[in-house]
């Protein structure tokens, strides 16, 4: 319990420091949001009124704590460009991104765990070398290129699946799943190839441990011995990589959402950057950073759940 409280405290402090860094970096960027909102022909008087309405004429410390207080209550302010509230848009777009990242990680795990385990147990066979070779090839393929190839095959030529667009699951579950397949595959295939290599390495290391040889000497066959005694120990380093892969999926989703025209955080971020809507960019980046911190927090919790030795030590 003490370790969990300590990790929770570290999470909160890290999130607070991240909010300062995000605000500071965007505050020092060149350009005036009021000028962007009004255009180049705005008069100085109108610019001054707009800066006052945006709160940009206040000290930076006051602006920061005002923004942070609003964020803690779910209020991310209003867009400098459209004037719409940012918080509701973030909530809607975040749901799309989480569906995409969750489905992509599910595809990666479904591929990586069995194929990585087989590549380790068959490492002296040609089939094991073939799995390793295919995974190495998959590592070299960017997610957006995988998405374009999948669209070309399954949407353009075969016409089995839509090439893009988004249908909310509460409107039409069937169309929602059909629209999610190709984006999830484009993310999951690439990350699954990366994760397969780590699973192979972890299982290979486990196969050489004394406790697994002892289990074999007691009469257990190779695969039951690996399932009962090996995979749980092999999962500890894999969970570390899994946390890194989740953060990579969040970043990769920015490009994949653009390829498949999905209204997620990635598309919203690119639109806000192109229109220099700094307050919207600020909110999106903070949400992404907090998601990364939450993933790392959950990885630390999973360590203790998977490995009982960590519970005893703590």
TrEMBL record:
Residues annotated as domain ABC transmembrane type-1 = 94-299
What organism does the record attribute this protein to?
Answer: Amycolatopsis sacchari
Q: So where does this one cross the membrane? A: 9-29, 98-122, 134-156, 176-195, 234-261, 281-306
Q: Could you tell me which CDD domains the record lists for this protein? A: TM_PBP2
Q: Which UniProt keywords apply?
A: Cell membrane, Membrane, Transmembrane, Transmembrane helix, Transport
**What coarse category fits the chief subcellular location reported for this protein?**
membrane
Q: Which GO terms describe its molecular function?
A: dipeptide transmembrane transporter activity
Q: Into which family does the record put it?
A: Belongs to the binding-protein-dependent transport system permease family.
Q: Where is the protein found, in the record's own terms?
A: Cell membrane
How is this protein positioned relative to the membrane?
Multi-pass membrane protein
What would be one Gene Ontology cellular-component term for the protein?
A: plasma membrane
Show the PROSITE patterns listed in the entry: ABC_TM1 (PS50928)
Give the Pfam families listed for this entry.
BPD_transp_1, BPD_transp_1_N
What the entry lists under SUPFAM superfamilies is as follows: MetI-like
InterPro entries per UniProt: BPD_transp_1_N (IPR045621), MetI-like (IPR000515), MetI-like_sf (IPR035906)
Annotated protein name in UniProt: Peptide/nickel transport system permease protein
